[in-house]
Automatic annotation (TrEMBL):
Gene3D superfamilies: Lamin Tail domain. PROSITE patterns: LTD. Residues 26-148 form the LTD domain. It comes from the Bacteria. This is Lamin tail domain-containing protein. Residues 1-31 form the signal peptide. InterPro entries: Lamin_tail_dom, Lamin_tail_dom_sf. Pfam families: LTD.
Amino acid sequence: MRTFVTKALVATAGLGLGVAAPIAAASSAQALPAIMIYKVQYDSPGADTGSNTSLNAEYVVIKNTTRSDRVLTGWTLRDKTGYTYRFPAFALKAGATVTVHTGRGSATAAHRYYNKSWYVWNNTGDTAYLKNASGTTVDTCSWRGGGTATYC
């Protein structure tokens, strides 16, 4: 999970002295990563039958938060176990999202597929790791279960 703290300096006037005294105040503020994990649908609706429809209802949404296209060629999305999706030659448009489904399908600009025959994301808790082509972790998203999806 992302945690950021911004410090602000607040000045107050001293009583009768006309002197300002600094007071530290904390607030939560964050600049979004350029490419981020936006949502993980870790529990597809209904029973886990392993059908391609069920597998594709388990997915991760990745978002480009910038105003320019970003090349994701060689980037990876993986879980704690190590199941990994590697982006082939691919550019994510400015402000757009791409959904990476667990099952099989035809890749488009908006949808990509692991081509797995069983589920990747654990319903009881897991972590999604998004790494750039150099292997540096760009974003993570964790959950403990108890639902069907999490927004990161």
